[in-house]
Design goal:
The complex is a heterodimer of chains A (270) and B (279). By secondary structure, chain A is an all-alpha fold. Chain A has one domain. Chain A is 73% helix and 0% strand. Chain A has eleven helices and no strands. Chain A starts with a helix and ends in a 6-residue tail after the last helix. Chain B has one domain. Chain B is mainly α and 279 residues long. The mean pLDDT of chain B is 88. A two-stranded antiparallel sheet of chain B has the order 1-2. The chains are: A mainly alpha (270), B mainly alpha (279). The interface between A and B is medium-sized, with 33 and 32 residues.
Chain lengths: 270, 279
């Protein structure tokens, strides 16, 4: 228990320090978030045109609108960009200096993740608000507070899942020289399978069984579906259960791979 | 004996200046090709990533036309043709323009621009076209394949005149997109860091994947005049299909000339605010 408390204290300090550092680049965050909502808005306009033009989609206009308006927010909130950096720290030996410290190198990455997201929120939320206001007549807004609580909870689980997947990929740097191709592959595959390009509900019939149960759905699509879609109570419980299961499984796997990696690690520059 | 060859002073007439820049650009290209042969793995990964991205980029279009036969007069085959043109345009931009504009912040904040200003070359030309990523041309090749497939499927057989129209429009589109991206990057003179500007450009250019008719009217105006990606993808495909006269071509050429003049002006204004970072 002591270790957890200590790590949390370190995390809090590091996050505060990161926020102070990163807020220097607040202009850059604003521009970044502008880029972040471009593609969802383009997709939104395209699919709305298709529906207005008489395309027979399995989902209605309200679902599509709510989905794409919230998509930019959820992809940001659950994103992780550290795989390349962590792999570099392993490969170039920066890990060595952290191994003699009373906190894990990973705590630094968690702090970086939290602080950047905190700052991005200030840029992104007003933008999403404007888009929401423009499309307010065709948004699905659940009345019950419970849905929003589950939405927030599911985003947190999704963020942990993405972060853990990144640890798994980066940890391969213990054995491989260059993981950048894998990082790129993850980005491309996750783009489609997480639902950030097209809502997963629009995927072909034959792929639904796979699409609904693969882990990437629970990194972006599932939290959005909680608000946008008509998930029944049963679907919700099952979905959250699967999401939680993936988080635990990925966490255990990452723990094992990381421990094995540390044992295989031969320090550079030590 | 002197090893220094006697050289004529630079001919400063307008025509010679242009010609010198063309010769210089040919050197850049030759150097980039030689450089690329040293990094064959880079070429292969660029090719593979480009192919996967092309495939995934078509996914929304294919899914969309799984639910409907046509959208605002565009059939699936025509939109695939458009995706081919989009791939060609983004490939050309990634090969010739992106490697330069992505460095704009470094040029300005690390003082590299100082070295450029001392050379007998237009600094704007140098900063916009110096570096070439030859591997990206593989995406142009795959784009041509998709374009031809789309044309065959949709049964369009353009005449020579229509092909000329399309090519002129694509060139106009490239010039316009370069100008817009350049203008966005020029903000670096005032903001110091514009690293993420490239991300905004890449986000907006995604709209070129779809025909202009797929967007609401206000957005169409934006995509024609403010962020003129329409000239790079939608108009060329409509020209190939033969339902576009010469007037949009003239409009594109006119806009390109205006845009180039504006960006020259903006560059000169920016250069005046530049206080060297290295000395």
């Amino acid at each position: 228990m002591n270790a957890v408390v200590r790590n949390l204290r370190v995390l809090r300090r590091m996050t505060a320090a990161e926020i102070a550092q990163q807020s220097v680049y607040r202009g850059a965050w604003l521009i970044f978030m502008l880029a972040n909502i471009c593609v969802p808005i383009i997709s939104l306009l395209i699919w709305r045109t298709a529906i207005a033009n008489g395309a027979q989609l399995p989902i209605d206009e309200r679902y599509v609108t709510t989905y794409f308006v919230l998509l930019g927010f959820v992809t940001m909130a659950t994103s992780s960009w550290m795989a390349g950096f962590l792999a570099n720290d392993i490969r170039l030996g920066k890990l060595s200096t952290w191994m003699v410290r009373p906190a894990s190198l990973l705590v630094g990455f968690v702090a970086n993740n939290l602080s950047e997201k905190f700052l991005k929120l200030f840029a992104l939320v007003p933008m999403i608000g404007i888009v929401w206001w423009i499309f307010r007549d065709s948004m699905n807004i659940p009345a019950s507070l419970g849905r929003w609580v589950l939405f927030a909870f599911s985003i947190v689980l999704g963020a942990i899942l993405v972060f853990t997947i990144d640890i798994l990929i980066a940890a391969l740097a213990f054995w491989m020289d260059d993981v950048s191709a894998l990082v790129q592959a993850r980005v491309i595959i996750a783009g489609v399978l997480s639902g950030s390009v097209v809502p997963l509900a629009l995927m072909p019939e034959w792929s639904q069984g796979f699409v609904d149960h693969q882990p990437f759905r629970y990194t972006v699509s599932f939290p959005v579906e909680i608000v946008a879609g008509e998930l029944s109570g049963g679907d919700l419980v099952a979905g959250l259960g699967i999401q939680f299961g993936y988080v635990v499984a990925a966490g255990v796997l990452a723990r094992l791979v990381w421990a094995a990696g540390i044992r295989a690690y031969s320090a550079v520059g030590a | 004996m002197s090893y220094v060859e006697v050289r004529q002073p630079l001919d400063r007439s307008w025509w010679h200046r242009q010609w010198r820049h063309v010769r210089l650009w040919r050197r850049f290209l030759a150097q980039a090709v030689v450089r690329e042969t040293q990094y064959r793995a880079h070429f292969l990964t660029t090719l593979l990533v480009g192919l996967v991205q092309l495939g995934l980029g078509i996914v929304p279009t294919l899914l969309l036309f799984g639910f409907t036969q046509e959208v605002h007069g565009w059939s699936r085959a025509e939109v695939i043709t458009l995706v081919g043109v989009f791939q060609i345009v983004t490939g050309l931009m990634a090969a010739f323009v992106a490697p330069n504009l992505n460095r704009m912040t470094a040029y300005l904040t690390e003082g590299e621009l100082d070295g450029v200003l001392l050379r007998p070359v237009s600094s704007q030309f140098y900063l916009t076209l110096r570096w070439i990523n030859v591997a990206e041309l593989s995406n142009v090749a795959s784009g041509i394949v998709v374009l031809v497939l789309g044309l065959v499927q949709s049964g369009i057989s353009p005449t020579i005149g229509q092909v000329v129209q399309a090519v002129v429009l694509v060139v106009c589109g490239l010039v316009l997109l370069t100008c817009v991206w350049s203008a966005m990057s020029c903000l670096a003179f005032w903001l110091q860091s514009v690293g993420p500007i490239g991300a905004v450009y890449l986000g907006l250019v995604e709209a070129g994947r779809y025909p202009l008719a797929f967007f609401p009217v206000a957005v169409r105006t934006f995509l024609t005049f403010a962020f003129p990606v329409a000239f790079a993808t939608t108009f060329p495909v409509r020209a190939l299909a033969g339902d576009l006269g010469w007037s949009p071509v003239a409009l594109g050429a006119g806009l390109s000339v205006v845009a180039v003049m504006l960006i020259r002006l903006l560059w000169r204004r920016g250069l005046r605010t530049y206080a060297s970072a290295s000395s």
